[in-house]
Amino acid sequence: MLLKVFVIVLSISQVYSVPKRKSYSDLKSCNLGPLAKEIASYDTVVRSILDYVRGPFKGKTYAELAKFVDKFGARPSGSDTLEQSIDYLVQLTRDENIKDIVTEEVKVPHWVRGKEQFTLLKPRVKNINGLGFGSSIGTPPEGITAEVIVVSSFDEFSNISEHDVKGKIVVFDPKFVEYSVTNIYRTTAASVAAKKGAVATLVRSITPFSINSPHTGQQSYEENVVKIPTAAITVEDADLMRRMFERGEKIEVQIQMSATTNDDKISRNTLIDLKGTERPEKLVIVSGHVDSWDVGQGAMDNGGGVFISWAVPVILQRLNLRPKRTIRSIFWTAEEPGLIGATAYEAKHRNESHNIDFIMESDEGTFAPLGLVVTGTQEARCIIAEVLKLFESINASTLVESDSPSSDINVIVDTGVPGAGLYNANDRYYWFHHTEGDTMNVEDPDELDLGAAMWTAAAYVIADISVDIPRAQDKAKRS
Amino acid sequence: MLLKVFVIVLSISQVYSVPKRKSYSDLKSCNLGPLAKEIASYDTVVRSILDYVRGPFKGKTYAELAKFVDKFGARPSGSDTLEQSIDYLVQLTRDENIKDIVTEEVKVPHWVRGKEQFTLLKPRVKNINGLGFGSSIGTPPEGITAEVIVVSSFDEFSNISEHDVKGKIVVFDPKFVEYSVTNIYRTTAASVAAKKGAVATLVRSITPFSINSPHTGQQSYEENVVKIPTAAITVEDADLMRRMFERGEKIEVQIQMSATTNDDKISRNTLIDLKGTERPEKLVIVSGHVDSWDVGQGAMDNGGGVFISWAVPVILQRLNLRPKRTIRSIFWTAEEPGLIGATAYEAKHRNESHNIDFIMESDEGTFAPLGLVVTGTQEARCIIAEVLKLFESINASTLVESDSPSSDINVIVDTGVPGAGLYNANDRYYWFHHTEGDTMNVEDPDELDLGAAMWTAAAYVIADISVDIPRAQDKAKRS
């Protein structure tokens, strides 16, 4: 999961406004009239889906996800492994007797980490567990060896003179506040520091918890600023260097990174359609992204999201349930380097964007489902809130409001399409995010079952009810 | 912390009985008479110690621990770093105007990990994050490449034929129950597997939680059994191989370890005495071990234990508090390879063992103190329980009973000396234990203050009260 890296402003003088999540509190003003009763009548089909997933389908989502991530491991943008894993998903879906599958080509970045070595040389020699950030340049083969200054914030850095930065490695040690806030250090530190003559940056991993685990992720260079190597270090090593720095000890670090940005490659978005019975042109989209970082297995980010979205057409097909509108399951490619697949899809399908009734993505974990994170008009939220009441038996009825519901689909939601991310019990999400610890051990079979069932049933109901999910402009027209 | 590795039986057919901890429930039968009142009268001095540590001494224990572990990092048995760190502790104590310090030489093992590389070759190539176990032999330079079998338990292994083990690498994947139970796989797996012709063992790290973090620790070879290389792998990789194995996939792993066991080195136990005013021959001992594993900083295991024990004479000296009995602070050496320092101390001081009134060690974390883990007669426990009442204001009054209160001192407690470990809020202790994550980030300044204050005040009261802590034989004599 990458949170809108590319809307992050590149000048630190600008204020980065964080899309805040808030619980939806104005439901009492909802007045859906007979629609409420209509939605409530889906209770039987929702229960049949829940029963199926907890019965004959039990453990299937976990088992298929495990087979997939165990077989391919990490699936970084530009890699052959990513393409092979997409082929596998297409075949796995075909094997379910679902034939309406297309892949759409997308040009994607091909950054390769190569060998990396980070070493504390002074005040004592110690290996530093680091991970270069996506799109970082490498170092010369002999590495970069330089004195370190440790800085807590961009504010603090703005008060340090160029003289004190020039030729140095800047360690940014911002305390974790929340991902969307603290993440700006990962995404922009290199250019911020390079403007004052720094030779490299090391950034405290963006996480509230660590067992000496570095967290990678995408960064981006500002135009017309010298590019310098940039990498994550662990919370522990950042804090170690902070303490040494505060004691007035001279710190020296050597960084060796052989990262390269190669020519773009062709990858693919995967679209699986379960054609609607009455209004097939109208789409309810469920989705996740197939690519991952080049560490761990990408089980959580975002294998889980892909597999509960894969489960939607599979379960409906097996249950012979066909809603009025088409359900499209999309596996985005190249989310991690900057929502590349989703951006390409939006551009390619812009002229039929009015046909997207509702778009969903799971990219913040597939822990126990709690509800949906929704973007849309008051009317749209009222309808979704009513749909969520169908999930009271599994405690997944909470509607959270956000103008940034989930990474990839933000690209489409930003054009006015209503949508939702999976709201789930993901308190520990950032403990594993973009680390070697993103493996099947984070996933739980029963939680995946609940997620798949809820994802399937919610998509079905939204795709089958008598009304479209209203959009801002619809509302404007009516009022 | 190493839990009695060397009392673990080497034949799996024998039952390994785990020393169970239980809450002390028969306090109501305590009848201390006037002693209860006497102990209660220490309330003022206990409060003055607490006030001092939370006032002028605030943050000192954390700051000194941080300076120490940041300066030296890991301090494995046999290393020059360990000896330098002992010199530093002696000087740090001298600087507090404490002169009664001796070091006693001990021959200690000198195992050196060297370079290690673990690689999954089939069904796909993947780096495995592993850590050889202390005392393991290395592999030939070209490594060992072999097919893998995955086994959950020694029970399961006993049912597998030699034919199916011979020439293979055995992955033991026991689910974590509790450290003292599951740890037997780390300590004995190599010889168990070698008896059936295995060429190496990889053992699931002994931990309830992981971010792909391998946990090292000591192992021991059974006599007259072929020695094979043995290492920890992460929970994640063990589970990955289990899943692959259960799918019937052929697994092949390459292990390269250049571990060597060198000649023993001379290290030292450090003894700091605050001489008693009335009965200086009688000892109340507080302790921790200076050595650590060769990963992380050894901040938790066992820098924290050393520094709250260092704080005891320092705080009493600063407050000009001298109890009737001598308080001895001991920094054990070479605990990790098998309680080497403590065993040497016990042998050297056996003839004066009757003078040990009470012995304490902190080696299971210095999180928020909760009380003491006590070994001793009913009478002894009644007295300690009364002392613990003095710590109700900091919620550290719990007495837990155990016949194995803390690693090193078990050697002495086993001879009939009453003793205690620090009972503390260490729920996450094994998350970091013997990993790169054992750093200052696990420690908290306020919790260390509380631990140091409680450790100091408890030792003071026990060393000053009018009665000795009774022993089993005393009781036997009397009854």
Q: Can you walk through the features of this model?
A:
- Two copies of one chain form a homodimer.
- Helix content of chain A is 34%, strand content 23%.
- The first copy, chain A, is built from 16 helices and 17 strands.
- Chain A has two domains: 5-111 and 263-478, 3-Layer(aba) Sandwich (Aminopeptidase), CATH 3.40.630; 114-258, Glucose Oxidase, domain 1 (3-Layer(bba) Sandwich), CATH 3.50.30.
- In chain A, helix 2 packs antiparallel against helix 15 (445-464), helix 3 crosses helix 15 (445-464) and helix 10 (299-318) crosses helix 15 (445-464).
- In chain A, the strands form two sheets. Chain A has a nine-stranded mixed β-sheet with strand order 1-16-15-17-14-12-13-11-2, sandwiched between helices.
- Chain A is an alpha/beta fold.
- The A-B interface holds A 66-67, 70-73, 123-124, 126, 129, 210-213, 235-236, 239-240, 243-244, 247, 296-297, 431-432, 435-437, 439-441 and B 66-67, 70-73, 123-124, 126, 129, 210-213, 235-236, 239-240, 243-244, 247, 296-297, 431-432, 435-437, 439-441.
